[in-house]
Design a protein that fits this description.
The structure holds 2 protein chains of 2 kinds. Chain A contains 5 helices and no strands. Chain A is mainly α. In chain B, the strands form 3 sheets. A 4-stranded mixed beta sheet of chain B has the order 1-10-2-5, with no helix packed on it. The chains are: A mainly alpha, B alpha+beta. Chains A and B meet through α1 and α2 of A and α1, α2 and α7 of B.
């Protein structure tokens, strides 16, 4: 009888921990701020790549475009631009925007020496 | 009658507390899919710069507004102006700071010009009408239309935007229409001697306002004298005003001053001689005020 009691207590404790983790991780995760751009949702990243593409179309400065893209961190500028392009194509961005992003990808590949 | 299992209930609550502590503080969920509003301040600056660069290239103010709304600034214009000052103060590219200022000016002008339908007078080509029309139409979009799902909405190219895109594609893009440097010359509206013994000798103060009486940062000022010239900018002393700039004049030299983007010329500027109430002479200063017509 006494061991049963401890069993219930342990089960309740584990259930409580599970509920706490579920609530804290899934239902109401901690609020975050001061984040880095690599955490941005894919559509925001793609829109940032589009902004860079729009500016590049006029500025024609691959170094500046690469510097803008570099805020995403570890990937190369051409890979970041390519990811944005893939997202844009898969999510129905306007054709003219896709063309702009394609131009940026090409420029970034040429700039970084990718054949 | 069943007894309430207090010990199990207590264990459940204790477990719940432990779970929450672990989930919220010790090992919070890995952040993915965040929004621009949660970015660190310096990354928000990068984001704003990119928005301004894109606006400078496309002239698409509605899209720029939608993007800016993602950053959650209480006042986007102020945020842009403050950023431009930081960029200039930290020695970043003037062109990039200029793009940020231009976007702030465009937003500012947009907010004022639309209700009055005042035509833009500095340009007489066909693109002017196109821009006026588009901005007037897009301004009717509710703010909430540019909140969470902006990137997706932008790609859907609503008819209004499509109209602009088509017409702009057929004609040169009116990228610089709202940039103050392309506008009508600034007028020298006030020139006065300042006799304040607490100010440095020969202090030349310049204040630059736009047509809405908002101070304008990042305005380049050219001061010349016989055998020399120098440039300085408004906004480098934000504590004295976004449109404030100053220069220390040397006694016995006469200066001529003009805003680089075009303004009335203030000539014959020299350190005035002032007197204290007790009759003691000291060097005063000059204050110039320029205003966009």
């Amino acid at each position: 009888m006494k061991s049963n009691r401890w069993l219930f207590i342990i089960i309740a404790l584990i259930a409580g921990i599970g509920m706490g983790l579920a609530y804290g991780w899934l239902i109401d995760p901690a609020d975050f701020f001061d984040l880095t751009p690599d955490t941005l949702r894919a559509d925001y990243k793609a829109d940032y790549v589009l902004m860079t593409s729009e500016a590049y179309r006029v500025e024609l400065d691959p170094g500046l475009a690469a510097r803008r893209l570099a805020i995403f961190g570890s990937q190369s500028p051409s890979a970041i631009a390519a990811d944005g392009l893939v997202y844009a194509r898969a999510n129905g961005f306007a054709d003219e925007d896709v063309v702009l992003m394609q131009e940026l990808v090409t420029a970034m590949q040429a700039w970084s020496g990718i054949p | 009658m069943r007894r309430i299992p207090w010990s199990s209930l207590f264990a459940l609550l204790a477990g719940l507390g432990l779970g929450l502590v672990y989930a919220w503080t010790i090992s919070p969920a890995r952040v993915i899919d965040s929004e621009p509003v949660a970015l660190r301040a310096d990354f928000k600056d990068h984001y704003r710069s990119a928005i301004a660069a894109a606006y400078s290239a496309t002239g698409d103010l509605a899209r720029a507004q939608a993007r800016l709304s993602l950053l959650g600034d209480s006042d986007s214009i102020e945020a842009l102006n403050a950023q431009a000052q930081r960029m200039l103060a930290s020695g970043q590219s003037f062109d990039e700071a200029d793009q940020v200022v231009a976007l702030a000016s465009a937003l500012d002008q947009n907010g004022v010009d639309i209700p009055t339908s005042t035509p833009i007078t500095q340009s007489t080509d066909n693109t002017t009408n196109t821009v006026n029309t588009v901005i007037a139409l897009t301004s009717t979009f509710p703010a909430s239309a540019f909140t969470y799902e902006v990137p997706v909405q932008l790609t859907e190219t609503p008819p209004v935007i499509e109209t602009q895109t088509t017409s702009v594609a057929a004609t040169p893009r009116p990228t610089r229409t709202f940039i103050p440097t392309a506008g009508a010359p600034f007028a020298l509206t006030e020139q006065e001697s300042v006799c304040d013994p607490n100010l440095p000798d020969g202090l030349l103060q310049v204040l630059v306002f736009n047509s809405n009486r908002r101070q304008m940062p990042g305005i380049e000022i050219l001061i010349t004298w016989e055998g020399g010239a120098e440039n300085f900018f408004t906004g480098l002393k934000p504590e004295l005003g976004n449109g404030y700039a100053d220069y220390i004049m040397t006694a016995d030299i006469t200066y001529t001053l003009q805003l680089r983007s075009g303004s009335d010329i203030a000539s014959g500027l020299s350190t005035p001689t002032c007197q204290t109430p007790s009759g003691e002479a000291f060097s005063g200063g000059i204050k110039l005020t320029f205003e966009e017509p």
